TrEMBL record:
This is Branched-chain amino acid ABC transporter ATP-binding protein/permease. It comes from Advenella mandrilli. Residues 8-253 form the ABC transporter domain. The keyword Transmembrane helix applies. It comes from the Bacteria. Keywords: ATP-binding, Cell membrane, Membrane, Nucleotide-binding, Transmembrane, Transmembrane helix, Transport. The keyword ATP-binding applies. The chain holds residues 339 to 591 of 607 of the full protein. Its main location: membrane. It is found in: Cell membrane. One of its GO terms (molecular function) is ATP binding.
């Protein structure tokens, strides 16, 4: 896509779980080459928003268009195949397999299907081709020296980056990350931030869902803030940082 082209249009999406409005008519757009930050306190509705976009949950109402196509009614598998890549909040690597093998499996990993199911489909593609693609993506994110290391031996920060490489192996147009910096140490956050800004500079579009406001603010010039399912603010980091409503949500809650 051309830089600045509309990649994702989220229009008044709503999710009710029984009487609870987890996502209350949220709208935002993502353009090509943009990192869009979605932040908010725990329970704000960030992951539910993520799950609505990726087809994990059906919408109560609203619409989601990806590259101009309505995707709200599609299965998560179909949405992934169209070019919406994602990582999972909890690391899903096979710890005793190599980093390279874990990423090669990504070519088969589909949203909402487990890694074991991916293993069953492995003979469908040429194994050599998958390994080649996996190597390329690991080099792209700076892990070219860890190809044959057991995934479980890597730091948590490196494992999160392996998961990003695995999502990249599916050649996504849009990458959705749910709290990739959670639990990372300062240096690991720095490394992750540099991988993400590198991808953005290559033109990747990213929706970055984070609890850690400082981490997001380093990476984006556009943020949406949610609290109790509702969009309470939208703007640049400079605007958000001094917004009394945001400060109240984070500190007063
Ligand atoms: P966040 O990711 O911002 O921490 P979530 O989207 O996980 O917030 O949760 C938003 C609200 O929706 C919370 O009150 C949570 O308990 C509720 N919720 C999330 N998923 C479900 C579900 N599957 N069933 C019922 N309630 C849910
Ligand atoms: Mg969450």
């Amino acid at each position: 896509p051309q830089h600045g082209q509309l990649i994702l249009e989220v229009d008044n999406i709503r999710k009710e779980f029984g009487g609870l409005v987890a996502v209350n008519d949220i709208s935002f757009n993502i353009q090509a080459g943009q990192i869009m930050g979605l932040i908010g306190p725990n329970g704000a509705g960030k992951s539910t928003t993520f799950n609505l976009i990726t087809g994990v949950h059906p919408l109560t109402s609203g619409s989601v268009r990806f590259m101009g196509q309505e995707i709200a009614a599609l299965s998560s598998r179909k949405i992934a195949a169209l070019g919406v890549g994602r990582t999972f909040q909890h690391v899903q690597l096979l710890p005793t397999m190599s980093v390279l093998e874990n990423v090669a499996l990504g070519a088969h990993l589909r949203v909402n299907t487990g890694i074991m199911q991916s293993l069953l489909h492995i003979e469908r593609d040429s194994e050599a081709q998958m390994l080649q693609e996996a190597k390329k993506q690991l080099e792209r994110v700076g892990l070219g020296n860890y190809l044959h290391e057991q995934a479980g031996n890597l730091s948590l920060g490196q494992q999160r980056i392996v998961e990003i490489a695995r999502a990249l192996a599916l050649d996504p147009t849009l990458l959705l990350l749910d709290e990739p910096a959670a639990g990372l140490r300062y240096k690991e956050k720095q490394e992750l931030a540099s991988v993400l800004s590198g991808l953005r500079d290559e033109g990747m579009s990213i929706l970055l869902v984070e609890h850690d406001m400082d981490f997001v603010m380093r990476l984006t010039n556009h943020l949406v803030v949610m609290d109790f399912g509702t969009r309470i603010a939208e703007g640049t980091p400079e605007q958000i940082q001094v917004d009394p409503v945001v400060l109240e949500a984070y500190l007063g809650g």
